[in-house]
Amino acid sequence: NPINTTSTSFVDLPNLAATVTIPKGKVADVLILFSGMMNSPSALYVRSVIGAAEASPGPFQAFWGVNGGATTQSANFSGFLGEGTHTIKMQWRGLSGQQFMSTRNMIILLNLRKAS
Q1: How far is CA 112 from the centre of its chain?
Q2: What's the CA gap between 108 and 32, in Å, rounded?
Q3: CA proximity to 15, closest of 44, 45, 36, 29
Q4: Which region, left, alpha or beta, applies to residue 51 given φ > 0 means left and ψ of -120 to 50 means alpha?
Q5: If we measure between CA atoms, which residue out of 68, 69, 97, 105 comes closest to residue 4?
Q6: Is the pLDDT of residue 49 over 90?
Q7: Which of 3, 90, 95 is closest to 40 using CA atoms?
Q8: CA atoms of 96 and 5, how far apart (whole Å)
Q9: What's the mean per-residue pLDDT of the chain?
Q10: Given this model, what pLDDT does residue 39 score?
């Protein structure tokens, strides 16, 4: 299921979003694991967003054009969730030209605990 973008602003990666609900009286540390096979004529960046906030550590330069084939890259992101419903998603953008990504995934791990 290869995808392409020419966007130089972050846009959602198709099918890499999930909604989680943290129960009343609980909080959660969140770890987002991402990997994808990508290619770019310049630089390709990925980031994870929790709600409207960028997950730590922020944008990751996942690829720099090397006049070769696609490579698989991975990155980890983290955040904190309070009680309620939250949407977690992956986004991408390029520096210039057409970006390409095929095999890709996002795994979300939650460490649910009692709120202090």
Answers
A1: 21
A2: 5
A3: 36
A4: left
A5: 97
A6: yes
A7: 95
A8: 10
A9: 93
A10: 87
* 16 CB neighbour count, 10 Å cutoff: 20
Task: Decide if pLDDT at 66 tops 70.
Answer: no
Residue 52's contacts (CB-CB under 8 Å, 6 or more residues apart) are: none
**Residue 88 buriedness (CB in 10 A; 0-12 / 13-18 / 19+):** buried
**17-41 CB burial, b ≥16 within 10 A, e <16:** eeebebeeeebbebbbebbbbbbbe
- The answer, as to whether pTM is greater than 0.85, is yes
Q: How do residues 75-103 score in pLDDT, each as one tens digit?
A: 999 999 999 999 999 999 999 889 999 99
Structure token digits, residue 37 = 């096979």
